[in-house]
Write a structure and sequence with these properties.
With 584 residues, this protein is an alpha/beta fold. It has helices spanning 39-62, 70-83, 86-99, 103-119, 124-146, 184-190, 208-216, 227-230, 252-273, 300-305, 330-343, 381-385, 388-401, 417-437, 453-457, 459-465, 473-481, 499-515, 529-537, 547-558, 562-574, 578-581; strands at 3-6, 8-11, 14-21, 175-179, 195-200, 220-222, 236-240, 245-248, 289-294, 311-315, 349-352, 407-411, 444-450, 468-471, 519-521, 542-545. The structure holds phosphoenolpyruvate (PEP) and magnesium ion (MG).
Amino acid sequence: MTFALHGLAVARGIAIGRAVLVASSRLDVAHYFIEAGQVGEEIARVRASRNAVIEEVRRLRADMPRDAPPELDALLDVHLMLLQDETLVSGVKHWIADRLYNGEWALTAQLEVISRQFDEMEDPYLRERKADLEQVVERILRHMRGVASPVAPPTAPRRRTQQDLLLGDTVDVPVVLIAHDLSPADMLQFKKSVFAGFVTDVGGKTSHTAIVARSMDIPAVVGARSASHLVQQDDWVIIDGDAGVVIVDPSPIILAEYGFKQRQGALERERLARLRHTPAVTLDGQKIELLANIEGPDDAPAALKAGAAGVGLFRSEFLFMGRQGRLPDEDEQYDAYCRAVAGMQGLPVTIRTVDVGADKPLDRSLRDDAHLNPALGLRAIRWSLADPAMFRTQLRAILRAAAHGPVHLLVPMLAHGGEIRQTLALIDQARGELDARGVAHGPVQVGAMIEIPAAALAVGMFLRYFDFLSIGTNDLIQYTLAIDRADESVAHLYDPLHPAVLRLVADTIAACNAQGKPVSVCGEMAGDTAMTRLLLGLGLRSFSMHPSQILAVKQEVLRADTQRLATWAQAVLQAEDPAALMAQ
Ligand code: PEP
Ligand code: MG
């Protein structure tokens, strides 16, 4: 039966595909399609690992000391039973043979199916067997990890095309990911995956998970609350990333309508692509700088393809994530920064120093639940200043990369004069260390992010120390309005048009313009076409956003007259309800 779920629209477009439900704990499992001719081999690989685990459990039972508690024996019996359970065996075969999932994916897909059956059981004893099943599957997966797959994951995953839908129930259809939650590090893993779209139960519009989704340029909805419970493995799902709607088990009429919308979207993208080489100049001749936000050096080609004038924000923390706490050393960072510099072919690259904490934990397992308010805690520059040796390692890597092309260094979340002076002293020290080692380094412009209201209000102090400023509206809104940007329950209060937010943004831009210091916006506001005219009217001339948003923003720029917009923007700024004036 068709039903719809509502969440927050975070990445535009329509995706239609079969649901793949992934439990948060299983996100590290590889997801790729095998070739039809490899089905037999892949089933045999899972079977061999399962048999090996059965042997392992049998041995454990045989070697059990006589005085071992009888419960242990019973538990191993349950594990043996589950390992040989027909629903598990036949389900795994189904996902491999009928859907061409790789073995690990097939196992976790079937685990989800059976787990739900356990959840629905009345008997608490049987319900608790779910944990045993998870352990059993974990054992098989661990065994499979030790046995290389004869079927290597493809380097460039095959994307399923929408025409496949016409073929109905064949294996060759798109898949969409449904999960309770995805951390930014998980998202990075999915960046090169087979998924055509995704939905999560939790998350806000500018949560980092949503931000990475936008950079993947696939339709996504977050904050869809109980989606991961209501959607079943393999259900047909439409993700409307424009409206924030998820339609489950759509009727043929609804499918046809969304298929049409999807084709319209593709046509619109083709039309926008023609603007790639058009200079971003307004009707009244103002040249506008459109820059790209990237998460790693591999994003540079997308930035160039979209016609970016450089990188306005390289979120370096993504190099630090998902590494079980082992941080990248100087050479590894240097290599990544150099690749970004080379990838941008002489255009400037703004590298932001590491910004971890709050909704960007280094690792899922290191999620910061220990602190009451992680967003107000030891994150971003505070984290870096707490470990100066680690910070100087990053600074040296950035300074070295600057020898190979234009690099700007951007510091997140500063608020205090003391932090500013400490940061600048550490940059000097890092440079001195490179000199002492006789290692080449280059000049960098040093900038600060304005993302705490205190920084916006003390903009004069920032301008005394820095070469440029970049307004991080995602955090600026979060901290001005006291709204957790990752919490869907207060997402309706996250308002870029709140008069207080606009005042801080406007005053920062005006202060920079008055002194002739470069200023840009690198928060999500910069890539939101509904905000382009207002920001232009407030005097902004540099915008940094995901490559996928650049052409749509350029289209707004080409239609704008900044002189006329300036008068209107002042009226918006004075209004009690700025949103009411936005359509004018
Ligand atoms: C911001 O806060 O607006 C910003 C660009 O930084 P991040 O989203 O990475 O916190
Ligand atoms: Mg920020």
